[in-house]
Amino acid sequence: MRRAMELALEDANLPPEAIGYVNGHGTATEQGDIAETLATSSLFGPRMPLSSQKSFLGHTLGACGALESWFSIEMLNSDRYIHTLNLVDIDTQCGELDYIVGEPRRMSNEYVMNNNFAFGGVNTSLIFKRWG
Predict the structure, then answer these.
(1) Exposed, middle or buried, 15 (CB in 10 Å: 0-12/13-18/19+)?
(2) Whole-number mean pLDDT of the chain?
């Protein structure tokens, strides 16, 4: 997971500090969420805002990468970042991050990252830049 994020940053020629928000894969599985949040916090640190759109849509399997990329672009362009629905108690084993909970958050970012992590290490991290 971390390697996918590092490769995306390398391809974009960006430092981790350039990313202002991460749309997490967030399947709400104990093992997956712990691994993902630890990888994310180890790369970006505890101040990285993170939420997951699967809390609204469910897991759309093969379509999740495209749908969540679209959501990430829409959030980037609107400066309105959707929260993770029904996230109340964060597992203490999860990485320390700035989880967006309760309601959407207004933020202005130049770059956001969208992550999708699948079985067998088929992982994708995409970076989107604000247009214009």
Answers:
(1) exposed
(2) 92
The domains of the chain, with CATH numbers, are: 2-129 (3.40.47.10)
Cβ 45 vs Cβ 67: under 8 Å: no
Cα 1 from Cα 64, distance rounded (Å):
16
CB atoms within 10 A of CB 68: 23
Tell me phi and psi for residue 110, to 5 degrees: -90, -35
- Over residues 64-102, the pLDDT tens digits come to 889 999 999 999 999 999 999 998 899 899 899 999 999
DSSP state of 102: S
Q: Of the candidates 74, 73, 19, which has an alpha carbon nearest to the alpha carbon of residue 50? A: 19
Pairing type for strands 105-106 and 111-117 reads unpaired
Q: What is the DSSP string of 6-19?
A: HHHHHHHT--GGGE
Q: Residue 33 in contact with residue 115, Cβ under 8 Å?
A: no
φ, ψ of residue 111 to 5 degrees: the values are -130, 145
